[in-house]
Design brief:
Length: 203
């Protein structure tokens, strides 16, 4: 299936984390490279075939960008902030329940709060990391989540790397970060992801 030059460039960009240095410059250079080859008489499909898979091309750009592992302390603080923000979002609901609920129904409401709160704590980082490559807490500490190659993670990878919070084995999982070369947790090794320091786009 033939795709347009813009669609190809967008696929390359979509594989790059938002904070990739020179992101805009990469897009401009890639478009210029395609235009030059088209101007020389080469067919579009032939040009795109020569450039190869968009994800592989994105990873080749990322190979020139050094990845520095995020510090254990910064990662722990970021997780605490994300947890506090998630719990804080439900605080008004708890206050309302306390004011209007009868004493006999209070245990049921509190149980519902714990279930909903637990789901939010588990789901929020999955959605944020898959879509933006970071969470509010990680962003505050200049951290982002990437594949081991440096490219953007998938939804499946985001789910796997956050499973310890659902399975309640996060303490054991976190200990691996103290002993692995890239400071990766056990489920980060499993999902082939890592947390690195973020660099502002200089493109």
């Amino acid at each position: 299936m033939t795709i347009t030059a813009d669609a190809y460039v967008n696929r390359v960009l979509s594989a790059l984390p938002p904070a990739t240095p020179r992101r805009d410059q990469i897009a401009m250079e890639l478009r210029g490279h395609i235009s030059e080859r088209l101007a020389s008489g080469q067919p579009l499909q032939g040009v795109l075939d020569q450039l190869g898979d968009p994800v592989a091309l994105a990873e080749s750009y990322l190979s020139a960008v050094p990845l520095v592992a995020g510090g254990f302390g910064a990662r722990a603080a970021a997780r605490l902030i994300d947890f506090a923000l998630t719990v804080g979002m439900l605080s008004p609901a708890v206050a309302l329940i306390w004011l209007v609920s009868s004493p006999e129904h209070m245990p049921l409401w509190l149980m519902a709060y714990l279930i909903v709160g637990g789901l939010l704590v588990a789901i929020y980082p999955v959605v944020a990391e898959a879509k933006y490559g970071t969470t509010i807490g990680k962003r505050l500490f200049g951290l982002r989540v990437v594949r081991e190659s440096g490219s953007r993670i998938s939804t499946g990878q985001a789910i796997v790397r956050n499973l310890p919070w659902v399975l309640e084995v996060f303490w054991i999982d976190a200990l691996f970060a103290l002993f692995t070369d890239r400071s990766q947790r056990a489920f980060e090794l499993l999902s082939k992801t890592r947390v690195v320091r973020s660099t502002r786009d200089q493109g």
